[in-house]
Structure formats: C-alpha cells, structure tokens
Amino acid sequence: MTCRKALSAAVRRLADISDTPRLDAELLMAHALGIGRESLLLSRLDNQGPETFEPLLRRREAGEPVAYITGRRAFWTVELEVGPGVLIPRPDSETLIEAAVDHFGKAGPRTVLDLGTGPGTLLLAALDQWPEARGLGIDRSEKALALAGRNAGRLGLAGRARFRLGDWGEGVEERFDLILCNPPYVEDSAELPGEVSEWEPSEALFAGPEGLDDYRRLAPRIGRLLTEGGIACVEIGAAQATAVTALLEAEGLKATLRQDLGGRPRCLVIEA
Asked: Which domains are present in the chain?
C-alpha cells in the first residue's frame, strides 16, 4: 500500500479518536519514514508505506498522544524532545512568547526565567528568539529537567540556558527582565480528554478546586523576581482572568490580559 492510501485509511480509523486525524496520521507516517512531514507531503506520498507505520497507528488508536509516540513536538521556532511524565507543549502557550516579542521587540530581554519549564518549552523558545539572552529554567520534576537539558544541547542553547530543580521561584535571588510561566491551572473536578488525563502528568495539570492554587503561590514572588521595566507572561485558563488578576493586584502588580489566536483569554502580562 502506498503512503497516500495508508494515510487515507488511517484518517478513517482516527476520525472518532482525534480532532486532527489527518495531521496525526501524517506526523506518524513521517516519523515511521524518518523524515519531516513536509518531505512526506512533497515527495513521498506515492512511495510504498513502511511496515513500522501500523504499530504507531495502533498506539494512537489506544489514545496515546502523537507527541509521546514520536518523541517530538514543535513549539514556536524550535522542536522539542518530549516524553511521558512531561507536559506536552501546546500552540496556545505561544501566546506568551508573542506577548514578550511585542513588549521587547528585536532587542529582547537580557535575562529570562521560566518557572515550571517542563522540557524547556518557553525558555528555549525565548532564547532561540533572542540570541543575546540567557536564562534559567526551574521545575520540580527531574525527568522534565533531563529533557530540558537534552533539548538545550540539541538546539545549541546549552551555553545560554541553565536548569535547576526547584519550587517556583523559591530560593532564586536573581532578577530577570522576562519571566515566563505556564503553571497547572485545571480545576480538580474538571473532565479532560482521555489522551490528556490518562497520559499527561496530573501534577502539571491540576491545581486545586478552583485551579488557582499555584497562582496563589506565584503572585507574591513575581514582583521580587522582575527587574525594573521587566514583565512576566503567565498563562491562565479561559475563565481565570478576573481571579488571577485580583491575586496579582493584591501584591501591587499590574496585569493586562492577552488572548490567544482563538480569541480565548490566555495570558496575563504582568508589570511590577
């Protein structure tokens, strides 16, 4: 069977499992061939399909996220290694980088702090954006930090990125021009799609009855970590802007709401 026919059959099999069955199938086929998706679409569709595609497809049918199957996820201008036990980067989080670009322009920040860095997602995207910047990524997960370190090395950013095991900004004495943070913000009672709830780490998703537990811990720390004129870009849930803004204002901080490409509240841009 050609790749083209195998993809058509795969789309039908994934139609009830994924919101993006065609994209999923193409990413899995490209991974099976050891090439990029663009190369698949431009020059390999009429080639014989690889036998390794079927086992990958079965894993996706079982609900496993594509990013865990391929071990890769594109984010902003970088491609990151990801794996079980680490939150998968999502396009909506690029809103934080967009907000920072709008604020700093081409000059960029000199120093960047990524709180809850995971596989280095926001920090490495920022350092790739601004070649003169240096940064620190903090996470409570040793598994996440191991991935972050490998990603920094593969992207040629190891000389500008440091990673540290820690709990938000506790014990950090430095100040930073830009703070990036995508904390857990899902309510404990929320129902998530199976491919999220059954596969991704709950500690990176859930944050108490209102989804606000980690914002309550972050709000008192942000001001002391920012340089004069610096900003923090913090991701929020779609219904959390008012509550999180109140927590920040209680600490003397100013927060401006920014929406993602879907028009949903996604990021608070915070100034001391």
From this structure: 3-62 (1.10.8), 76-271 (3.40.50.150)
